[in-house]
C-alpha cells in the first residue's frame, strides 16, 4: 500500500470510528460497538508517526511469518519464563533460608517484589528511551550472575540484597519480551503473544521441579529453625546455583543464536527512518520474502518530531522530559485514557488477589481443621509441581480459543478466565483433603493463567508504539506494588478469617468485568 492509499484509508477509518462511537442513540448498542481500524487511528499525538507506523505494519504483514519469528518465540519465551522462575525460586526456598538465618519476618519476599518493581520500571522506561535491543541483550546475563550469587550469601541481609538485584535484572523481561516479539509479528499472528505466556508457566515448573528434586533428600534441608546448621541446609543454595546456571545458558543462547534487530517501530519513533526500512528489507532478503516498502514511502509522510530530538542528543533532563511525554501519550485522548486506566486497574487488582490468596488460604484451611498438606517436604513440593504443570494448560487453552474462535477476542477470553477463577477461588474454601487441594489448586492455576496470558499479550498490544514499553512497565508495576504490600498484610492479619479470600475472589470478578469494558480489541485491529 502506498502512502497516499494508506493516508486515505487512515482518514476513512477515523471517520468510521467517530461515527461508531458518537452516532448511536442506543447506549447498549454503543457499549457493544467495537472500535475499528488500526490502533494508530486513536493515537493523535503525532499524525505523521501514526501514518509511518501504518506503513511499517503493511511491510511486516507483507513479509509474513518467518524463521526469525520462531527464534524470537522460543528465545523471548525462555526469557519470559525467567521472571516467574526466579520469583518462585525465592518463594520455594524462603522457609529454609529463614531457618538458616533465624528470621521470622519475610524480608526476602519484599526484596523479590521490590526488585521486580524496580526492574520493570527501569527496563521499561529505558526501552522507550534507548531501544529494546540493549535491555534484551543485557538483562538476563545480569540476572543470572546475581541469582548464582544468591546461593553464596553468608547472612540474611546480603541474601535479600542479591535477591532484589537478580529480580531487578530479570524484572524487565515480562515487559520487553512481549514488546519485542509483538513489534515484529504480522497482524495475523498476534495471537501467538497470548500463546507465549505458556513459557511463564514453564518457569514455574522449573522452579518447583528443581526444588522438589533437592528437597526430596533430608540431608539438603533442615526440619526446624532451632536445629539448622549450614552443612545440613545446603539445598536452597544448590537450587539457586542450578536455576541461575539455567538463566545464564538462556542468556548466552539469546546472544549467539539470534542477532536481534532493533524493532522498526522504535526506530521510526526515534526518527531513524532509514534504519527501520533497512531492518525490514534485511529480514525479507534473508528469508526470500517481499518487502516493497522504501525510504521514499516513509519520507513522503513528513518528519516526525516525537522522539527525534532526544534520540539525537540524549541528556538526563531530556530523559525525564521524554518519560513524561511517554506517560502523557498513554492518556492522549478519552479512548486511550479509558483503555489505559482500565488496564492499570486490572493489574492492580490482580496484584492484590493472587498473592493474598496464596498467603491466606493455607492458613485459613489449617485453622478450620482441613488436612490438605502432604506429610513430607518432598510431598508438598510434588503437589505444587503437579499444580504448576497443570497451569501450562491455561495459556495453551487461551491461545487455541483465540485461534479457533476469533470472535471471542482477547476481552472475551479474559472475562471467561477471570470469572472461572473467581468461582474456583470461592470453591477452594471448602477444601478438606489433600487430593481436593491438588485438584482445586490445579484448576485455579489453569483458569487464572487463561486470564494472565491474555492480559500479558493485551497490555502491549493496545499501547501506542512510541510509549509501549513505558505503558507495559507501568501496568506490571501496579501488580508489583501490591505484591510488595501483601506479605506484610499476611504477616500481621488474622489468617483464620475468610474475608481476605472472599476479597480475592471479588477482585478477580472485577477484573473480568473490566476486560469487557476495555475499548480496544486487538484480534480485530492492527497494533500501533
TrEMBL record:
List the Gene Ontology MF annotations in alphabetical order.
transmembrane transporter activity
Q: How does it sit in the membrane?
A: Multi-pass membrane protein
Q: Where are the transmembrane segments?
A: 110-127, 134-156, 192-215, 235-257, 335-357, 385-405, 412-431, 437-458, 470-493, 499-520
Question: Which keywords belong to this entry?
Answer: Membrane, Transmembrane, Transmembrane helix, Transport
Kindly give the Pfam families that the UniProt entry links to this protein. Answer: Sugar_tr
| Key word DNA-binding present | no
GO cellular component terms, A-Z = membrane
Location(s), subcellular: Membrane
Q: Which InterPro entries match?
A: MFS_dom (IPR020846), MFS_sugar_transport-like (IPR005828), MFS_trans_sf (IPR036259)
Domain Major facilitator superfamily (MFS) profile, by residue range, is 65-524
Write down the superkingdom of origin. Eukaryota
Q: Does the keyword Transmembrane apply?
A: yes
The family note in this entry says: Belongs to the major facilitator superfamily.
What protein name does the entry list? Major facilitator superfamily (MFS) profile domain-containing protein
Its lineage reads: Eukaryota, Fungi, Dikarya, Ascomycota, Saccharomycotina
Amino acid at each position: 500500500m502506498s502512502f497516499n492509499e494508506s493516508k486515505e484509508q487512515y482518514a476513512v477509518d477515523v471517520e468510521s470510528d467517530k461515527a461508531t462511537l458518537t452516532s448511536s442513540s442506543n447506549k447498549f448498542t454503543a457499549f457493544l460497538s467495537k472500535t475499528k481500524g488500526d490502533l494508530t487511528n486513536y493515537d493523535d499525538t503525532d499524525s505523521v508517526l501514526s501514518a509511518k507506523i501504518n506503513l511499517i505494519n503493511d511491510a511486516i504483514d507483507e513479509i509474513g511469518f518467518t524463521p526469525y519469528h520462531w527464534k524470537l518465540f522460543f528465545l523471548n519465551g525462555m526469557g519470559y519464563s525467567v521472571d516467574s522462575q526466579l520469583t518462585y525460586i525465592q518463594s520455594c526456598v524462603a522457609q529454609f533460608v529463614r531457618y538458616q538465618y533465624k528470621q521470622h519476618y519475610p524480608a526476602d519476599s519484599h526484596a523479590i517484589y521490590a526488585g521486580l518493581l524496580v526492574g520493570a520500571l527501569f527496563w521499561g522506561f529505558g526501552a522507550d528511551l534507548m531501544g529494546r535491543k540493549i535491555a534484551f541483550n543485557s538483562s538476563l546475563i545480569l540476572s543470572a550472575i546475581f541469582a548464582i550469587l544468591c546461593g553464596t550469601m553468608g547472612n540474611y541481609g546480603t541474601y535479600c540484597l542479591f535477591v532484589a538485584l537478580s529480580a531487578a535484572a530479570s524484572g524487565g523481561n515480562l515487559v520487553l519480551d512481549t514488546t519485542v516479539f509483538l513489534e515484529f509479528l504480522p497482524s495475523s499472528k498476534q495471537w501467538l503473544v497470548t500463546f507465549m505466556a505458556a513459557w511463564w508457566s514453564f518457569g514455574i515448573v522449573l522452579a518447583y521441579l528443581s526444588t522438589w528434586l533437592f528437597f526430596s533428600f533430608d540431608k539438603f534441608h533442615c526440619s526446624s529453625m532451632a536445629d539448622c546448621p549450614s552443612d545440613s541446609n545446603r539445598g536452597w543454595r544448590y537450587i539457586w546455583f542450578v536455576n541461575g546456571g539455567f538463566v545464564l545458558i538462556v542468556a548466552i543462547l539469546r546472544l549467539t543464536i539470534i542477532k536481534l534487530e532493533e524493532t522498526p517501530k522504535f526506530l521510526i519513533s526515534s526518527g531513524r527512518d532509514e534504519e527501520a526500512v533497512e531492518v525490514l528489507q534485511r529480514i525479507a532478503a534473508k528469508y526470500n520474502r517481499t518487502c516493497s516498502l522504501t525510504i521514499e514511502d516513509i519520507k513522503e509522510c513528513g518528519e516526525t518530531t516525537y522522539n527525534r530530538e532526544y534520540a539525537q542528543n540524549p541528556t538526563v533532563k531530556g530523559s525525564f522530559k521524554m518519560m513524561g511525554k511517554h506517560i502523557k501519550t498513554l492518556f492522549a485522548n478519552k479512548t486511550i485514557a479509558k483503555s489505559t486506566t482500565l488496564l492499570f486497574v486490572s493489574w492492580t487488582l490482580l496484584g492484590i488477589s493472587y498473592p493474598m490468596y496464596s498467603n491466606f488460604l493455607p492458613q485459613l484451611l489449617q485453622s478450620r481443621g482441613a488436612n490438605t498438606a502432604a506429610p513430607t517436604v518432598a510431598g508438598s513440593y510434588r503437589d505444587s509441581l503437579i499444580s504448576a504443570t497443570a497451569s501450562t494448560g491455561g495459556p495453551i487453552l487461551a491461545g487455541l480459543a483465540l485461534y479457533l474462535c476469533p470472535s471471542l477476542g482477547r476481552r472475551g477470553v479474559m472475562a471467561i478466565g477471570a470469572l472461572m477463577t473467581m468461582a474456583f477461588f470461592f470453591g477452594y474454601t471448602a477444601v478438606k483433603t489433600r487430593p481436593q487441594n491438588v485438584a482445586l489448586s490445579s484448576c485455579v492455576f489453569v483458569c487464572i493463567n487463561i486470564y494472565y496470558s491474555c492480559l500479558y499479550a493485551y497490555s502491549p498490544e493496545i499501547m501506542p508504539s512510541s510509549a509501549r514499553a513505558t505503558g507495559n512497565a507501568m501496568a506490571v508495576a501496579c501488580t508489583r506494588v501490591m505484591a510488595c504490600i501483601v506479605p506484610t498484610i499476611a504477616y500481621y492479619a488474622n489468617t483464620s478469617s475468610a474475608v481476605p479470600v472472599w476479597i480475592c475472589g471479588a477482585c478477580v470478578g472485577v477484573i473480568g468485568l473490566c476486560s469487557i469494558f476495555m475499548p480496544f480489541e486487538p484480534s480485530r485491529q492492527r497494533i500501533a
